[in-house]
């Protein structure tokens, strides 16, 4: 049988040229569609709105383009429910055909969206603000990246600060889902190792309204409360604790002392002054890049237009992840061909410059970065903010433990009664 070699060669060459031309047009002409998913309903609605502001700021700083391509943002909302978050992600990916999805906000949402991402190889998923450990530690997805450190990493240093303050026995009050488990694990791993005790943990429903029974369980012999509640949950608890005459010092979870909580109106707000906490940012950090970020945030989102005196935790982490999405596109020359092969390689080796320092990823595409131990203070204008107590750089997800020793946080892990 005679083969028509010239025709075969012409076909292959023509096809290769067509693919190259199509790739070039795609990289330089078409807009890149980015889905932006945050909670705009439920207990974290205020934080979700500020998360959107942070992500939008990263796009504004680039003039709405990257690598010669216009950036088109398509927004979607959830309510901190994993099923709702996945449905919103499905719409963005399967109907709106976004190239990249940035989100979600809450811990259990992040695990669910990560699991969904495994079946969508044509889309790159970059976390928004969710901070559960299992998102990247358990069955990590090859197309899911997280450029923010997570809930346990955020608490490094707080256990040591609590012991130094004289708090040897602490009760935990936290929402009953994946992110608070991570926060409590990060705190207790250090606190218990240094001799601290946690005689009781009260796990409360997300979106709860009545904390009377929890407040009634607080033992007289604890030195302080570790409160890991966010948004409206934190506000409701603090108001009810104040009304009940509560006087125990509070250690705050990262979301408990974020700007969306510190700026609520209520008597208990004043008693938060002096509260120790930890997280990926400190409002009063003196770094030049942080100051520039805060100034840019305030200029674009002044308090009169719904912003806060300083960017909330959610604004910061959404900004960080959106900046990573855009920096990775720049590094890849806008090339999203072959299921984003070049783009994902660029993301994996990216050394991301954030307002608080350099972030890099580990083998699970999880951020390694800086944690701040903070203290709530009042500024000259009467605003509450977090000043730096201490700073820990290069915090990894295993918190300095050997892999065989490390256990993901849960209701019962760790324990030091």
Write a short abstract of this structure.
The chain is of the alpha/beta class. Helices cover 39% and strands 20% of the residues. It contains 14 helices and 15 strands.
Annotated CATH topology of the largest domain: Rossmann fold
Number of strands: 15
Radius of gyration, whole Å: 23 Å
Structural class: alpha/beta
Please give the alpha-carbon distance between the first and last residues. 82 Å
CATH structural architecture of the largest domain: 3-Layer(aba) Sandwich
- Please describe the biggest sheet, giving its number of strands, its sense, and whether it closes into a barrel: 9 strands, mixed
**What is the average of the pLDDT values?**
93
Index terms:
Rossmann fold, 6-stranded mixed beta sheet, 417 residues, 9-stranded mixed beta sheet, disordered N terminus
What report would you give on this structure?
The protein is α/β, with parallel strands linked by helices and 417 residues long. It has two domains: 27-148 and 287-368, Rossmann fold, CATH 3.40.50; 153-285 and 371-395, Response regulator (Rossmann fold, 3-Layer(aba) Sandwich). The protein has helices at residues 5-28, 45-60, 82-95, 107-117, 134-137, 158-165, 178-193, 212-216, 231-243, 259-262, 268-271, 288-300, 313-331, 337-348; strands spanning 32-39, 65-66, 69-78, 100-102, 124-126, 144-145, 170-175, 201-204, 224-228, 250-252, 276-279, 352-354, 357-361, 367-378, 384-395. Strands 7, 8, 9, 10, 11, 12, 13, 14 and 15 form a nine-stranded mixed sheet that branches. Strands 2-3-1-4-5-6 form a six-stranded mixed sheet. A hairpin with a 5-residue loop joins strand 13 (357-361) and strand 14 (367-378). The longest helix is centred in the first third of the chain and has 24 residues, at 5-28. The N and C termini lie far apart (82 Å). The relative contact order is 0.15.
